[in-house]
Amino acid sequence: MGRTTPALQSESTRQTVRGASFADAREALGERGVELDEKSVRSLALSVGSKALVQREARINAARQGIVLSDEYVGKRIVISADGGRVRPREGGRRGRKGKNGRRRYATPWREPKLFSVYVIDEQGNKVKEIPMFYDATLGDPDAMFAILTAELLLRGAARAKEITVVADGAPWIWNRVDALADALGVERKRIVRVADFYHAVEHLTAFAELCAGWNAEKRRRWIRRMRRDLKQGKIKDVIKIMRDLCKGRGKAKMKTEVEYFETRKAYMRYHAFQWRKIPIGSGAVESAIRRVINLRLKGPSIFWRKENAERMLHLRAYLKAGRWDELIRSVIQPAYLVDAAQKAAA
């Protein structure tokens, strides 16, 4: 690729994905005695990213054919979370009339990349450190993200997992697809444990308390503390009843909206039972991944991306931050491994 060795491809791309810019990557390589200009560093990273995305599509197709590549999740308790971040892609600017400065205008609207995380927990609910996290992200729609998630779960043996838990905030685009995920994995829908993130629920309690007219700061704090305790003890019905009784005054409509949040998700808020079963009640893993994968590299003042380049960077950085860089590079440098693995699995 570009008259470079596999080792240079990997290291140059790794530094590009890890650093804050292509210039930083060039500087880091220079400190190691590797002299590349910024254009070459950028070209290598985008080439590796393109090949990695081709392999991702190949993995999706392999999963649809029923191929299982490993037993990573067989017999394990796995926890899945998903969330959205924010990126500003650079749209347009390639056609049309040029302005006074000689450049074509372009738009930079905010877009929401979708990211998921998968990790394994032991019987005490603690993360199993020996099995690294798995992240991936896309600027595609929710169906595109779930296609990637489903493929990776199937390829890694999640259809025979001991327990599957989905922990997420209240976003409908996540919960509306959990049943389809169960069907794709070939497991009963009731086998997937659904958990609404506890800390997002507390945020909604806080938003409700702010709408209660005549309450001072101390009364709000005491009420939130009590509702938080009741929520954790599994008294979701009591919490909803108390909130409904408080729906009065000018903020009544907004208060009812907050109550509706709990009504529609009360089956996912059995926190006392979840804690007894050693099931996580927070989606901190994916919240952290959003920051590490997206915010620290793709989001910032005056940072704009071509959509195709953002997709490459999201995919590469997800693997890097999950500690699975070698796994990704192997698929790029030795693309035939997927065919070989499929043949072994079939045998």
Write a structural description:
There is one protein chain. The protein is of the alpha/beta class and 347 residues long. Among the domains are: 67-196 and 282-305, 2-Layer Sandwich (Nucleotidyltransferase, domain 5), CATH 3.30.420.40; 199-272, no CATH class. It contains 15 helices and 7 strands. It has helices at 6-18, 22-31, 38-64, 142-155, 172-175, 178-185, 198-210, 217-232, 236-245, 252-265, 271-276, 284-298, 307-321, 325-333, 337-346; strands at 77-84, 91-92, 106-107, 114-121, 134-138, 163-168, 192-196. The strands form 2 sheets. Strands 5-4-1-6-7 form a 5-stranded mixed sheet, with helices on both faces. A two-stranded antiparallel sheet has the order 2-3. Helix 3 (38-64) packs across helix 13 and helix 7 runs antiparallel to helix 8 (217-232). The longest helix is centred in the N-terminal third of the chain and has 27 residues, at 38-64. The chain is globular. The two termini are 33 Å apart. The mean pLDDT is 92.
Order of helices and strands: HHHEEEEEHEHHEHHHHHHHHH
| Global morphology | globular
Give the name of the CATH superfamily of the domain at 67-196 and 282-305.
ATPase, nucleotide binding domain
Q: Output the CATH topology of the domain at 67-196 and 282-305.
A: Nucleotidyltransferase, domain 5
Number of strands: 7
Low-confidence stretches: none
Radius of gyration: 23 Å
**CATH architectural name of the domain at 67-196 and 282-305:** 2-Layer Sandwich
Largest sheet: 5 strands, mixed
Separation of the first and last Cα atoms: 33 Å
Report the portion of residues in β strands. Answer: 5-15%
Helix content: 40-55%
Total number of helices: 15
Q: Residue-averaged pLDDT, rounded?
A: 92
User: CATH class of the domain at 67-196 and 282-305, anyone?
Assistant: Alpha Beta
Q: Strands of the largest sheet, in order across it? A: 5-4-1-6-7
Q: What class would the helix/strand composition place it in?
A: alpha/beta
